[in-house]
Write a structure and sequence with these properties.
Length: 313
């Protein structure tokens, strides 16, 4: 369990983390989302004591992590996969880490095998691709079998197999009762792997909810697709205050402002046939974009295309 209470970190005038209060529970994968610069990495650094908060607390298993007697066994963290002595082999890197807590060669070799790096175990880390470096970082996080895992962008650079592997691994680790907090900008991955979401924007919590509730909430008030051979009769019956109808093609239209059950009841009440009645569910990505729209600090715009007239001017 990770407990954040009024956690705040300032850099000069900037409040990178601004009064975050949340519990990150064991047994589930918690996805940590937010736009660039929202404060995710800073929060993770505060949790493991790499930064000091201006105010508030971050407790890991009931105490401050810096006071931990067995830090590697308590929290496995992947915060920067490049934070490795590039001249060292993967195996020596893990052996050196393990030596600080009495972990020997057998466990190191097991962990290397579990992340798929056995064959390159004796190669220098600087020769590793981005994905191999991520795997080594994950191996380091798992080395002492910690109860809490903090993974900052673990999927970054992994190939399709690697993504599938980490998805299964995280589910397994959470299933074993561990606390798993991971950040990622890949919404499709997050939707598949996370059970719970913590969304922040400009250092503040925007949502702390199950992924299911997050998507359902974003979908409510959404559209319902109706396919009916009796569309011409049904559509006028659905019209009313706050209801909008958009015809997509003959016999197929979209309704906003009426729920699928209400549309079904109206059709049944008039003996009209319905071939399809589908509420349009928001994706995690669309729900996230909607929530964070006002918190995006570094918004880019697509430059408008120069047409011939502009060029001539
Ligand atoms: N060491 C530092 N010195 C000054 N400002 C910092 C420092 N570290 C982070 N910041 C600022 O704090 C804010 C939060 O940064 P942080 O890296 O935590 O965001 P993030 O959510 O992890 O972003 P990203 O998704 O881009 O990795 C940003 O405005 C950043 O510029």
């Amino acid at each position: 369990m990770i407990e954040l209470q009024g956690l705040t970190k300032t850099y000069g005038d900037k409040r990178a983390v601004d009064g975050i209060t949340a519990n990150i529970r064991p047994g589930v994968v918690t996805g940590f989302l937010g736009p660039n610069g929202a404060g995710k990495s800073t929060t993770m650094r505060l949790i493991v004591g790499l930064d000091r908060p201006a105010s508030g607390t971050a407790l890991v298993n009931g105490h401050s992590y810096v006071s931990s007697r067995a830090p590697l066994a308590e929290v496995g963290a992947l915060l920067d996969a490049k934070a490795v002595d590039g001249g060292r082999s993967a195996r020596n890197h893990l052996l050196a880490l393990g030596a600080t807590v009495g972990i020997g060669a057998r466990r190191v070799d097991d962990v290397l095998a579990s992340v798929g790096l056995s064959e390159v175990a004796n190669k220098a880390a600087k020769s590793f691709s981005l994905g191999m470096g991520q795997r080594l970082g994950i191996a380091a996080a798992l080395l002492a079998d910690p109860a809490v895992l903090l993974l900052d962008e673990p999927v970054n650079g992994l190939d399709v197999d690697g993504v599938q592997w980490i998805r299964d691994l995280l589910n397994q680790l959470a299933g074993e009762g561990r606390t798993v907090l991971l950040s990622s900008h890949l919404m499709s991955e997050m939707q598949l792997v996370a059970d719970h979401l913590l969304v922040i924007g400009q250092g503040r919590i925007l949502a702390d909810t199950s992924i299911q509730d997050f998507i359902e909430e974003a979908s409510s008030g959404g559209a319902v697709i109706v396919v009916s051979p009796d569309a011409g009769t049904l559509a006028p019956l659905l019209a009313g205050d706050g209801v909008s109808l958009t015809t997509r093609e003959p016999g197929r239209f979209e309704v906003r402002g009426q729920t699928a059950p209400a549309i079904g009841d109206i059709a049944a009440g008039h003996g009209l046939r319905i071939h399809e009645l589908t509420p349009v569910t928001a994706s995690l990505e669309s729900a996230y974009l909607e929530l964070t729209r006002d918190s995006v600090e570094f918004a880019a715009t697509v430059p408008h295309q120069t047409d011939e007239t502009d060029k001539a001017a």
